[in-house]
């Protein structure tokens, strides 16, 4: 999250944050995205499903490390489609090999994040800690993308 913030503040790296899914949003739509869609439609749903239900079900049949590994792998796999869509919308990773590499890297990174979120769930005994970290991570990128956008590029201006 700190890296995303630094990228937004550094003129040379701002173009890397140009996410077309965010570029078309006006301020009200961005607020709705960050305050409603991400927290309720993504974070709460995913944390209940993955760290709440799936992790509990896996722990009934597997030892804790195996349950965390399987749940985290499923969490990574869950992010394949949205990653492929984001790459396409933003015209990144043009060739098939580049797309496969990028999607694989993001899925692996997301699985690692899932393991961290599972650890937070286990250590805290609550979904609150993983929800807050997941929320911060998911909201950082669209906010940084919006902050990196020149003020006169906002729709409706």
Description:
This protein has 157 residues and is an all-alpha fold. It has helices spanning 2-9, 20-23, 27-61, 64-78, 80-89, 96-124, 128-148. The chain has one domain (2-150). Helix 4 crosses helix 6 (96-124) and helix 6 crosses helix 7. The mean pLDDT is 89.
Brief summary:
With 157 residues, this protein is mainly alpha-helical. The protein is 78% helix and 0% strand. The chain has helices at residues 2-9, 20-23, 27-61, 64-78, 80-89, 96-124, 128-148.
**Global geometry:** globular
Main β-sheet description? none
Structural class by sheet pairing and helices: mainly alpha
The H-and-E topology, N to C, reads as HHHHHHH
Percentage of residues in DSSP E strands: under 5%
The gyration radius over C-alpha positions equals 17 Å
Task: Pick out the low-confidence regions.
Answer: none
The rounded distance between the terminal residues' Cα atoms is: 29 Å
The helix fraction, in percent, is over 70%
Put simply, the count of helices is 7
- Counting structural domains, the number is 1
Number of strands: 0
Tags for this model:
about 160 residues; mainly alpha
List the helices and strands and how they pair.
Layout: H1 2-9, H2 20-23, H3 27-61, H4 64-78, H5 80-89, H6 96-124, H7 128-148
